[in-house]
Specification:
Strand order of the largest sheet: 3-2-1-4-7
Shape: elongated
Strand content: 5-15%
Largest sheet: 5 strands, mixed
Oligomer: single chain
Number of strands: 17
Length: 566
């Protein structure tokens, strides 16, 4: 047998025993290191359970902390013992007790026989990889790390900051170019022996002893000094999430593991009985030369990372909800916010529903009295109540749920300065929002009401101030919504182009050119009304300029009443 195996065992020793037996039964000599943190009685029982296997030996035990030098020292000792006692070995495979062979050892040996001089070890410089986690790339090789990151986190961070503050930098040994990569490798006897017997090894060991996470850089760097042929990849399928933690494989990953064609997978859940019963796969000679292809499952892991970090558009989860602007799209789909149109046109919602042929067109969802759903229903899809207290308890989630619950349809709703304004920033920063504003259109309801003019002036000033603040938000550099703003004067002079755009948006497809517009309220006398407001000290600048004899040419359905100017 040309292949020897080093197994680093930490937990779930019964599963480690199963894997070790598989290696040994296939004829591989195995040297096992068991973490000193494992209870002595448990360790003794583990050794006794494997005592019937002559090819299995145990090496000196180290207490191994994550990211510590002891993992490298344990590997060095095991490799030295393996090379000294088995001169026939050509490749050494490093595995863990949580590794599961996926293919027969005979297939791995055949694969390595065809590549007798090749070292399989992931080995890249810090400039070439984007997956270092913890904010330390090159600095992990130029600073000192004498404290455990997991056991003494506070001291670890303070010591790093102190070194950065004083500008401390360690000298990297001459000729060494630091490389990083997966801990799990398969090296040739020639390369591994050269690393272990290098005359400068004491210098290299002393340097890497204070490097952060040396088990992912020591052999990866040393192999570059001594190897004649490196394939920078691991034969072990080992995936990590965005936080640098290893993915754990469960029973439902069986098809994915099979598709990877890798020889070994890590890290396997100890209770994944179905995986341990299925793998390694039975020997199948036609697969002898199938190259491991971990990239075939990369898309699955990439999607898993996206789902975990971003979630689905319009849905929220604990990891993102507390942090503002960490949403993967605020809402589940496009929707339209229409401001001022219902004031300019009679029955605008009914006309738009008919013109678009299917979109849900709501009234003022955030009106003070209630949420005016389409068809004036008290309950909307998903059991959403029109009660204002329930809506205003969390207005942002109210809108998010409304879009999600009927995401198959484009939602549109009316909005204005008389409505609850708490959603302004949410809508402005939502890439799904299509916001069309006829500024100053709120003046029409005051114009038609013919209330006491002093009260009208105060209300006009209040509404204008509210809308002015909203427009500042919509014009903010942080706004991501698609925003369209025009004054009332601009809109009434040429409404068809804007209406065509809105119909196309709500339909979510190009719509035939509009043949008719909704019925516009008659605005005879609006210009004079605005001038009276100016005369009383209130300047309605958001409406645009109206001549005093403005006439829209349409009939006014509401009986006008005279008002008194004081």
């Amino acid at each position: 047998m040309n292949l020897g195996v080093i197994v680093l065992a930490h937990t779930a020793l019964q599963r480690a025993e199963q894997a070790i037996r598989h290696w040994a039964d296939a004829g591989c000599p195995v040297v096992v290191h068991v973490d000193r943190k494992v209870d002595q009685n448990e360790y003794s029982a583990f050794v006794d359970a494997l005592s019937d296997l002559d090819r299995v030996k145990f090496t000196r035990r180290y207490r191994c902390d994550w990211g510590g030098w002891e993992l490298v020292a344990a590997t060095q000792n095991a490799a030295t013992e393996l090379l000294d006692t088995h001169s026939e070995l050509r490749h050494i495979y490093l595995a863990s007790g949580a590794c599961l062979p996926l293919r027969p050892v005979s297939e791995l040996c055949t694969y390595l026989d065809a590549r007798p001089e090749t070292d399989f070890i992931e080995s890249s410089t810090t400039e070439d990889v984007p997956w270092t986690v913890g904010g330390l790339d090159e600095e992990r090789f130029t600073l000192r790390f004498p404290f455990s990151w997991r056991r003494h986190r506070r001291i670890f961070d303070l010591y790093v900051k102190l070194q950065q503050l004083i500008g401390f930098k360690r000298r990297i040994p001459t000729g060494v170019v630091p490389h990083m990569g997966s801990q799990w490798w398969c090296l040739t006897r020639r390369t591994l022996n050269a690393i272990l017997t290098d005359p400068k090894r004491p210098i290299y060991d002393r340097y890497f002893r204070k490097v952060w996470i040396p088990d992912e850089s020591y052999f990866q760097t040393m192999a570059r000094l001594h190897s004649t042929k490196i394939e920078s990849r691991s034969l072990t399928l080992s995936k990590f999430d965005f936080q640098g933690k290893p993915h754990v494989f469960y029973n439902d990953h069986k098809a994915l593991l099979r598709r990877s064609a890798c020889f070994v997978a890590r890290k396997i859940w100890p209770r994944a009985d179905e995986l341990y019963d299925t793998f390694p796969l039975p020997y199948d000679k036609p697969d002898d030369h199938v190259t491991p292809n971990p990239s075939s499952v990369d898309r699955v892991f990439a999607n898993a990372v996206d789902r975990r970090t971003l979630g689905r558009p319009g849905l929220y989860m604990q990891s993102r909800f507390p942090t503002v602007d960490r949403e993967n799209a605020v809402t589940a789909g496009p929707y339209s916010v229409l401001q001022g149109f219902a004031e300019v046109f009679d029955d605008f919602e009914g006309w738009l529903t008919k013109a678009t042929g299917g979109g849900d067109v709501h009234g003022h969802l955030f009106a003070p009295d209630r949420a005016h759903f389409t068809d004036d229903s008290p309950v909307y899809v998903g059991g959403m109540s029109d009660h204002p207290t329930l809506r205003d308890y969390n207005a942002k989630m109210f809108l998010t749920n409304l879009i999600w619950n009927n995401r198959a349809k484009h939602q549109a709703f009316q909005f204005g300065p008389m409505d609850t304004q708490t959603i302004n920033w949410m809508v402005a920063k939502d890439t799904n929002a299509r916001i069309s504003v006829v500024s100053g259109a709120w003046i029409i309801s005051l114009f038609l009401a013919r209330e006491e003019f002093s009260d009208v002036r105060k209300e006009a000033a209040r509404l204008q101030q509210i809308e002015h603040k909203q427009l500042k938000i919509l014009r903010s550099p942080f706004t991501k919504a698609r925003v369209r703003v025009m004054t009332l004067a601009e809109f009434v002079r040429s409404p068809m182009e804007t209406l065509q755009i809105i119909v196309d948006e709500v339909s979510e497809q190009p719509h035939p050119r509009l043949a008719e517009a909704p019925s516009m309220v008659k605005l005879d006398g609006l210009g004079a009304f605005l001038q009276d407001l100016r005369n009383q000290g209130m300047h309605p600048f958001l409406t645009g300029e109206f001549a005093e004899d403005t006439d829209t040419g349409t009939s006014l359905q509401t009986q006008q009443k005279p008002y008194l100017v004081r």
